[in-house]
Amino acid sequence: CGECEKGFSCSSHLIIHQCIHTGERPYECEQRGMSFSHRLHLICHQNIHAEERPNNSHLLLHQRIHTEERPFHCLDCRKGFKHNSTLITHRRIPTGERPCECPQCGKSFTQSSALTQHQ
């Protein structure tokens, strides 16, 4: 990012990030005219119109954003994480475990999302 020098491996993530600096809000709710910088925020807003609420586990995950609660701890270094999946990935660092392998080139990754991005 030219504004804050934050790096992104995917250009679409950079474009989404740049909305923070430009104030651009390209995702608009047709019912209320409200606009959002991220598509996910629009979807959450639209759930209100549909009278759908996220289940309790989604609410707990969301609340951790505000509280900085990190209930998942590494037994080796005691570092805390908001999500168990992040702890699992963290624990793969010292072992070098990379269970997600690309079937085309054989390159392996610690996370399935990294493999998906690679493909």
From TrEMBL:
InterPro entries: Znf_C2H2_sf (IPR036236), Znf_C2H2_type (IPR013087)
Compartments where found: Nucleus
Pfam family, one: zf-C2H2
Keywords: Metal-binding, Nucleus, Repeat, Transcription, Transcription regulation, Zinc, Zinc-finger
SUPFAM superfamilies linked: beta-beta-alpha zinc fingers
Leader peptide range in chain numbering: none
GO cellular component term, pick one: nucleus
Domain C2H2-type: 1-26, 27-54, 72-99, 100-119
GO function terms (MF aspect): DNA-binding transcription factor activity, RNA polymerase II-specific; RNA polymerase II cis-regulatory region sequence-specific DNA binding; zinc ion binding
Name listed for the protein in its UniProt record: ZN530 protein
Classification of source organism: Eukaryota, Metazoa, Chordata, Craniata, Vertebrata
Annotated gene: Znf530
